[in-house]
Amino acid sequence: MSPTIRALCLSFGSLLALASGAEQTAVMPVTPSVPGASVYFVEPADGAVISGPVRVVMGLQGMGIAPAGIDFPATGHHHLIINAPTPPAGAIIPMDANHVHFGKGQTETTLDLPAGSHTLQLVLADRNHIPHEPAVVSPVINITVR
Fold it and tell me: Are 51 and 115 in a shared domain?
């Protein structure tokens, strides 16, 4: 087997082990946040009663936005948490209906939420979708969709 193919097989095997949780000792480094950095909702406001679709505009102060995968100091990208608890510190934020990633650096979106009450929260995460340390998270806001 050529050295290149051997290296690729070893790398692929390591990725599979990490994905399966078999190699729990391999921990990605935590990216520090900038003291005083904050994320916030420009829109909607806490307590808003909205006719859908819901326009969400995300703000950031004290740090910059960079797409996922880009290693640039003092940056991250937004994650919108919908009707779910704050993701645990040090864990990769999942990607599902309750955890929306904005890995291209987007700062606004439109959501089609069903009628009813909903909670929203912003989490800034690093290039690997892991929240910074200390975490840069917004307060949870409550909205009602008519």
Answer: yes
Q: Which amino acid is at 22?
A: A
Detail the DSSP E strand segments found in 24-107: 38-43, 49-50, 54-61, 64-65, 75-82, 99-101
DSSP states of 98-133: TEEE-TT---EEEE-PPSEEEEEEEEEE-TTS-EEE
Please tell me the predicted confidence (pLDDT) of residue 52.
85
Does residue 141 contact residue 118 with C-beta atoms inside 8 Å?
no
* Residue segments in the chain with a per-residue pLDDT below the cut of 50: 1-26
pTM assigned to the model: 0.81
Q: Are residues 53 and 118 in the same domain?
A: yes
- If asked whether residues 78 and 140 sit together in one domain, one would say yes
pLDDT at 30: 86
Hey, what are 90's tokens? 């040090």
Task: Please tell me whether residues 77 and 141 are part of one structural domain.
Answer: yes
Instruction: Domain of residue 8: give its range.
Output: 1-27
Preceding peptide of 53 cis, ω within 30°: yes
